[in-house]
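Marked as duplicate of an earlier ticket. Keeping the data here for the record.
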Amino acid sequence: MPDAERRKIQGVLAFEPALEGEAPRRVDEGAEPFAAGSEPESPANTERLMEEVAEAENLRKALKRVMANKGCAGVDRMSCRELPEYLKAHWPRIREELLAGRYKPQPVLRVKIPKPDGGMRDLGIPTVLDRFIQQALLQRLQALWDGTFSDSSYGFRPHRSAHQAVERAQGYIRQGCGIVVDIDLEKFFDRVNHDDLMNEIAKRVTDKRVLKLVRGYLNAGVLEDGLVKPVDEGTPQGGPLSPLLSNIVLDKLDKELEKRGHRFVRYADDCNIYVRSERVGQRVMESIGRFIEKKLRLKVNKDKSAVGKPKERKFLGFSFTGGKEPRRRIAPKALYRFRARVRELTRRTRGARLERIIEELAKYLRGWRAYFGFCQTPSVLKEQDEWLRRRLRSLIWKRWKRGRVRFRELRARGVGKDLAAQTAGSSHSPWRISHSPALTCAFPNAFFKRLGLPSLA
């Protein structure tokens, strides 16, 4: 974040004593009722949790995170850049509403984005003000709850990553668990039962203002096709708080698996259980499926869930080789999506200059390599490198179009006269020509490296 913007945030959220005064102790009627007989799982006192949420340093961190994440405007059309000035003018009123339990979240904006393997996913974009408040709430709740979650849960948790989850799964396979029970939850974020979720939160939080605020975010509704539609189940994807709420729901599944003594790894709604035989796997799939549908009131996706060998299934974009020492490898679907994206960036009809195409490719490749470079099959990465360079040489060859132009360009790049003439007059396809000695000589690996194309290997 630029220094000027950081100073602006610090100036806006100076939080004078008037803004940090004692909160009203009375809670408005209609606040979320505390679950009878429940006790917080965290030993921390949560009676005045809203005061901690509205504490100055917590708010500064929340605003900094929201500004860094940027993102789209919500239903009020306010952008991230406008948020600091808005808070400067309105924060005293908003804070008073939060501390009195009167704050009402605005509806989320419904947008659709494509899924990696087809179909569309619904996202709910809260306003930037609600994202700011959710982030402040998240920071306090996560500090209280994260220590109560299972050690086998890796999604949306601080200091935990998808790579660690994959490595944990690999360890179970190495221990002799050669069968995986791969459970996928159907439309998980859309099916979460609000009452069940609030019951679980009420076991951990005694501040009724916080409970009412969370319920407000769940019931805020969505703006779609110009109309605000009510929501009675699900946690909209797109807000900072949603991932933490998903972990609260699925913590019951984690605890059940631990009670049964299973080896498992869960990342969000993707859960893999590792067993030693297919017969045991089928039994686990059936019993855990019943638990999910009856106790959690969620649905197992029968098409995507299965019992099989780890090398036949994928987990977070990876699968594993067979044998006593399984290695991490990139799942076939992930490689297919990689090539599909490269084809899109290098399609002939784009008309962009080669330098521009490579600049866009480099941005995508660096992100892809940061994640999938975790594989233990470097030959696959080398293969993608070679394929990508052939793709670029093929693109260049197509753009030259005519034999005379091709001959001239090859000669200008140091290709011998006879080889240039033979290649320029060839009737072979551009893909076959891209692997020819002439194109390899004209555009060696060093050429693409000079233009900024990173290597995956």
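See parent ticket for discussion. The longest strand covers residues 108-114.
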